[in-house]
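Support case: user asked for a sample of complex input and structure output to validate their parser. Sending the pair below.
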Amino acid sequence: MDFLRNNSLKIAVVLLRVVLGAIFIYAGYVKLEQPWQLFAAGIAEYEIVPLWAATFLARTLPAFEMLLGLMLVIGRWSRTSTVIMSGLLVVFFSLMVRAFAQGKDISCGCFGPNETISWKTLLRDGSMLAGSIVLTVMAFCNRRTTV
Amino acid sequence: MKILALALALLLPCVAAGPEVDKNRTMGNPSAPLMFELYSDFMCPHCKLLHENILPSIILDYVKTGKAYLIFREYPLQIPQHVYSRPAAALAVAAGRVGKYQAASDALFKQQNSWGMTGKLWDAVAPVLTPDEQTKVKALSQDPTILAEVQKDVDRGMAAMVNETPTLMITYKLKQQPWSKWADYSFFRSYVDGLLKK
């Protein structure tokens, strides 16, 4: 794609990739610092998955987020990592919108336990989703360039 | 050696006393391995749910069994919707001075929906007090020392980074962990039981 030949755009894409990757590493790290049970209880507050699934997610998701973030920062397997990240963010964002629309006064669980879902958190996660979709499109449009 | 022994003897009362608190607002054995400090707001609906549905399990599993010492901390949120939170906290603390903290807080949570609209806190608390206690509590609720006690709890919570209610501050072996997720009691129990095994 011609538009990826533009250096400024390439730099912007790399920056976006590193920023999103760093955010995911941080999000995973913050959760790993907390007891997994606290994150599991946070997942249970959404009332979407059964308790065993909340337990499974709480024990695996933080490490997975960190790994995904790392893949994105180093720029390896860009297609795989951006697709997975976009998929995860679609799920996270949809759940947050659903909880917000239902008037649930719960924590989003994005960066630790104490962040109630609000317009602010929706805007932040929505922006992350938009950024991730851009990276995914770029990764598929440019076979040769490491984006 | 003598100096060390003297220093230990002097420090012992400080360690045994733990955090400064009115004994009427505590439950269990002060020397229990765990310390739970429950920060709540009488106008908060989640605090009502915790008080009525989960707290009895916490008391049964950890306080009555001697595993935890429970301290009730007032944490009236300073938001426009919670206009009666601080007077309610003061009233409960005042009731605590006549040994009726639990009865008063039970009554306040039970009738939260009614006094939360009208502000008639006294109507909720008065029935759990004898006429003599009513006179004392009414006077005490305006006492500056009661208001200062409420503020002391708020300051303590703010210092501990409590930013939502209800939050249970779990202290074990000098390490603190705030807990504010109450969707399912089993996760809390799993965490606390895990701590006790360490």
